[in-house]
Amino acid sequence: MFPELNNLLNTTPDRAEQGKLTLLCDANTDGSFLVHHFLSFYLKANCKVCFVALIQSFSHYNIVGQKLGVSLTVARECGQLVFLEGLKSSVDVFFRAQAEPHPLQFLRSVSLQPSPEVHAWEANAENLQPLYEFVREALKPVDDGEAAWRCPVLLVDDLSVLLSLGMGAVAVLDFIHYCRATVCWERKGNIVALVHDSGDTEDEENNILLNGLSHQSHLILRAEGLATGFCRDVHGQLRILWRTPSQPTTQRDWSLTYQYKIQDKSVSFFAKGMSPAVL
Amino acid sequence: MGAGRGKPRALPTRPQYRASAEGGSGADPGGEAGPAWSGVGGAGDVSRPRVSGRRTGSCGLLPLPPTTAPNGSSGPSRDSVEWEGRSLLKALIKKAALGGEQVHILGCEVSEEEFRAGFDSSINSRLVYYDLFRDPLNWAQTGEALPGGPLGALQAMCERTDPGPVTVALDSLSWLLLRLPCAALCQALCAMSRQHACRGGGPAAEQLCVLGLLHRELHGPGPMGALSSLAQAEVTLSGTAGQASAHMLRRRPRQRPTLETLWFSVLPDLSLDLQGGPPLESQPHPDPHTPQVDPASHLTFNLHLSKREREAKDSLTLPFQFSSEKQQALLRPGPSPATSRIFYEPDAFDDLDPEDPDGDLDV
């Protein structure tokens, strides 16, 4: 985790809030450093983490996690971390019997059905219920009465790839809806999900997914590339938006903007235009 | 009941209103009977405009002074990510509940506890909540889910409303619109008003007010336009400088649509606080503690002007600027031609023709 980002978000692993949905979004840049931050943050906060990793392999996250001070191998072995490695287990989908449920079985069961409006075949993918069942099972509270871990956390990297794999935006929204109902509301845990913003107004599915999740989120972290292009000393800009989806507040939703530079083991944040390299 | 005496009226531009109006009382031919979507034009009834959540959400209908024409229909409240509309929806629900109406809520986006937070216990006991949040698609297979999915829940809700003034709140219309075909949703909304009108007794007694919350970024112009045409009022939420504003577009039958802007805030106890105008501080003030930096200092050349230099600069007249002095100089007859003469010494190669080259012109 990055201590400077903790300061900006005004949180520490001991005082992590519960029942919140955090949306990570990146536009014109790579926002995966935020995923690594939250992964190490919640592991240090002694929470049970279910990580649905669809983009990179386990060893990638492990190497970065070691730089940030957590060992994913140890966490997985002692049961704190449940890791779904999408790249590896997607191959298993095709080599196991179809009757067995698999969290990624939507990859296999994209069926073609005629659409009544248009006389053409259109893909009708299933929903993400098996993935939800996997998450629910992974974050099930331990039955021995004593809570070993603080609160369950679901981390998804990332949701946009599900759109590329053939799921509709509404199916992904339904999956997050059910995860919210189970993880956030029922078990008072947190969800952190990364969505890419391609900036392409023609990508309606992605826009629906992004906006739909934005309306449900309590915290939105948006990493953007600089408007003027690439820079060696400033890698991007982070916008933080705190939301209260249903409570009236006398103060409107609160937002801050910082610029950042990613270094080997940390990320430094500074106010706009105040990079140490240009001062 | 108006079923017998309703004769077909002249087709308005919005046939939906008419279709639903046939069930209402025809006693006042000038007024609209009350199905949910049409305006209820009875004397003395204060219908709340429905806020349909289309683009920006804001419902400004309740706080309107009683002199405004009552409408029965609701409009969508449209909100955005920065300016959320659920607190406004809850404020309107609170007002309806305090007014003695029955309030039915279809909750899809947040849990029942989160939605009920902020209402006190007396209001909470009046709210009838249909929970579509926990298991909307029946994935858990526990049998507790509302049957028929979202559409079935919507239809069941309108069947369970008792006659009398009712407010139905849909949180949110966006959630329903993403999962149901737009036509089915619009038909369900119209049927809701029709059924409620048919169930009730007198003319102005039943008013069905439907409040819907819409997130404007999620939908294209087609579904938005369809819901707009059903609604009698649309409230769009936005704001500046930390102050929320509601742009209200009201459509009344046979009247021109009106657009109004209200500045409001929702207090923690979910009461609405209307402000008169835009916030006073509309521009950010510079921080008074930061010293003003003079960019012309610390230079190797001088950019400042002394007093004499500044006076000379201000009194300078530019050569091509048309000032009043120049105008007077031109208007005055010019000096004698003797003051400007041309001296020309022809050399050997010049060909001077004494004839006037323009001699053949009749000038």
Automatic annotation (TrEMBL), chain A:
Pfam families referenced in this protein's UniProt entry, alphabetically: ELP6
The keyword Cytoplasm is annotated on this UniProt entry: yes
InterPro entries: ELP6 (IPR018627), P-loop_NTPase (IPR027417)
Biological process terms in GO annotation: tRNA wobble uridine modification
UniProt keyword terms in alphabetical order: Cytoplasm, Nucleus, tRNA processing
Assigned GO CC terms: cytoplasm; elongator holoenzyme complex; nucleus
Top-level taxon in the UniProt lineage: Eukaryota
Pathway(s) per entry: tRNA modification; 5-methoxycarbonylmethyl-2-thiouridine-tRNA biosynthesis
Compartment(s) of residence: Cytoplasm; Nucleus
Subunit structure: Component of the elongator complex which consists of ELP1, ELP2, ELP3, ELP4, ELP5 and ELP6.
Family designation: Belongs to the ELP6 family.
Function, in words: Component of the elongator complex which is required for multiple tRNA modifications, including mcm5U (5-methoxycarbonylmethyl uridine), mcm5s2U (5-methoxycarbonylmethyl-2-thiouridine), and ncm5U (5-carbamoylmethyl uridine). The elongator complex catalyzes formation of carboxymethyluridine in the wobble base at position 34 in tRNAs. Involved in cell migration.
Protein name (database record): Elongator complex protein 6
Organism: Acinonyx jubatus (Cheetah)
Gene: ELP6
UniProtKB/TrEMBL annotation, chain B:
InterPro entries: Elp5
Places the protein is found: Cytoplasm; Nucleus
UniProt feature, compositional bias: Gly residues: 23-44
Ranges of compositional bias, category Acidic residues: 347-363
Pathway terms, separated by semicolons: tRNA modification; 5-methoxycarbonylmethyl-2-thiouridine-tRNA biosynthesis
Region (Disordered): 1-81, 274-296, 324-363
Metal-binding found in the keyword field: no
Top-level taxon: Eukaryota
tRNA processing among keywords: yes
UniProt KW keywords: Cytoplasm, Nucleus, tRNA processing
Membership in a protein family: Belongs to the ELP5 family.
Protein name in the entry: Elongator complex protein 5
Originating species: Acinonyx jubatus
